[in-house]
Design a protein that fits this description.
Layout: E1 3-7, E2 10-12, E3 18-25, E4 33-39, E5 46-51, E6 58-60, E7 68-73, E8 78-83, E9 92-99, E10 111-112, E11 116-120
Parallel strand pairs: 2-11
Antiparallel strand pairs: 1-3, 3-8, 4-5, 4-9, 5-6, 7-8, 9-10, 9-11
């Protein structure tokens, strides 16, 4: 079976940093678009950032631009999300998503990780 597994997350102070990782079995992530999507209580699902197939173009939501960085580590078949200057509004469950379509088209992702909690609080 194909599995998408996330690691990282946790509780941090405002202004702190966290790193999330998305790993896969059953496929090579370098052949797929990969994105990070978050869901906060009482809020709509939000596409945070993604990296496209092939050319590796990256895209960021305005809410995280300049603070978050997505990157591929093909040697380890992972995609990482570095989150800096974290704010309380970043608190959410973060999901790694994998698909064959434009990485900005969130409804078209095919595979999803289990989700991991990120909490930013003093």
């Amino acid at each position: 079976q194909l599995h998408v597994v996330q690691s990282g997350g946790g509780l941090v102070q405002p202004g702190g940093s966290l790193r999330l990782s998305c790993a896969a079995s059953g496929l090579s992530l370098d052949n797929y678009a990969v994105g990070w999507v978050r869901q906060a209580p009482g809020k709509d699902r939000e596409g945070v950032t993604c990296i496209s197939r092939g050319d590796g173009n990256t895209y960021y939501a305005d809410s995280v631009k300049g603070r978050f960085t997505i990157s591929r580590d093909n040697a380890n078949n992972t995609v990482n999300l570095q989150m800096n200057s974290l704010k309380p509004d970043d608190t959410a469950v973060y999901y790694c998503a994998v698909g064959e379509s434009d990485c900005r088209d969130v409804p078209r992702y095919d595979y999803w990780g289990q989700g991991t909690q990120v909490t930013v609080s003093s």
